[in-house]
């Protein structure tokens, strides 16, 4: 049993294990750490579970339409996702003709037709995204008893997708780096910070000043702003530090680093990327901003850098042997000096200038 007060709420007692399935001390400690982290963010596991049970019982006692179950799915699951709006739009559009039907009438044929119709419009890759969204919904509805079987299981893909093989060479990254200095006073620094930190596009576009620690030369993002939901620390190499220092010197009371409105992240990344492409050589092959991350990973691997270090910089799960449950909780704080050294090394590769080495956290 573990007791912890929820931030802004009551104390809650949590059962960490129960007979006949006892848990080890390390497993119990890991579960307690997860509960403690959630409670610190104001997440009340018990209240959420009780709300879901009440909602499930109420809806099972009534005739449910697809639309009504969508609403519950949105409230209990989608609302916790950063991709909530897009996922809900996919569901409502693909099953538009079924929204007011009983959810019990929904069949595998209906799900397959929704995928096939989207594929027939010429958007086969997007049809696969529709398939994934529908499969996640039907599995959720089946587990909670809203439908007697998972009608989304086994639905065929619209197309077999191949992993993209585009990897930016060091030479290409340097060409992009050079072009960013003609990309404007907002987009230029944004693109350069993207290159130097190798973080995800949305994480840099939405970067907030309270996530930037110029004194420690770090970006510390909360779990609410990362893909895997875990806090993540990124070292600022000398060039990255200089970019943010210049932006900081010219700002007023703005909360966002990259903004033109003062209240929302800068928009128009597609047009800005197109203008950046226009600054590159005519024979430069098509590339995406995400390719910067794969280019970094490839360059570091060729230079002999540890895969675990690269994974942590990119905020991937560590490869190799699986870490213990406790280690997973603290992955974000591991190997910080090595990660700092790797990003310093990367900045030298990109800028072709020596970098002042400053370790993270004084370690």
From TrEMBL:
InterPro entries in the cross-refs: CB, DNA_brk_join_enz, Integrase-like_cat_sf, Integrase_catalytic, Integrase_DNA-bd_sf, Integrase_recombinase_N, Phage_Integrase
Gene Ontology MF terms: DNA binding
One of the protein's GO biological processes: DNA integration
Protein name (database record): Site-specific recombinase XerD
Domain Tyr recombinase: 163-343
Core-binding (CB) domain span: 64-142
Organism: Sedimentitalea nanhaiensis
Any matching Pfam family: Phage_integrase
Keywords: DNA integration, DNA recombination, DNA-binding
Superkingdom, natural source: Bacteria
Family classification: Belongs to the 'phage' integrase family.
